[in-house]
Design goal:
By secondary structure, the protein is an alpha+beta fold. Strands 3-2-5-6-7 form a five-stranded antiparallel sheet, with no helix packed on it. Strands 1-4 form a two-stranded antiparallel ribbon. Helix 1 crosses helix 2. It is elongated, with a radius of gyration of 16 Å. The protein starts with a strand and ends with a helix.
Length: 128
């Protein structure tokens, strides 16, 4: 492994974004920050960096410390070993409430797509 990696590659490889293009777009819009400063997609990510990454699902930011650098997408357990999550539990609780309120705002019976989204949310929050 090398000492550094491009920000968009690392964010994609560690599964914070579904595609590298989405990671690059978030960096270009100034949403991803390193040590409090916006970073570009080509900026190097090194072990020890402190990143602020927005939630794709809703409002708020994750606080992530980089432990290892990877450039290729790997399985979730290997990806999670490359970073430490320093996000406060209150942030996750607020996001969970926001998602629940958003879900309640939709009326009627959930569609098949809505049901899959609900299952994803429940599965994610049960593991945290």
């Amino acid at each position: 492994m090398s000492e550094s990696s491009r920000a968009d590659k690392w964010l994609w490889a560690t599964r914070f974004f579904k595609t590298r293009g989405l990671a690059a777009e978030a960096c270009a819009n100034g949403k991803v920050k390193r040590n409090g400063h916006p970073m570009k997609s080509a900026s190097p990510v090194q072990p020890g960096d402190l990143l602020e990454i927005p939630f794709i699902e809703g409002p708020g930011f994750r606080l992530i410390s980089v432990k290892a650098v990877i450039e290729k997408r790997v399985g979730a357990p290997e990806a999670q070993a490359c970073y430490g999550d320093l996000t406060k539990p209150e942030v996750y609780d607020a996001l969970k409430l926001w998602l629940a309120a958003k879900r309640e705002a939709t009326k009627g019976r959930p569609t098949k797509r809505d049901r899959r989204e609900i299952d994803k949310i429940h599965g994610f929050w049960d593991d945290v």
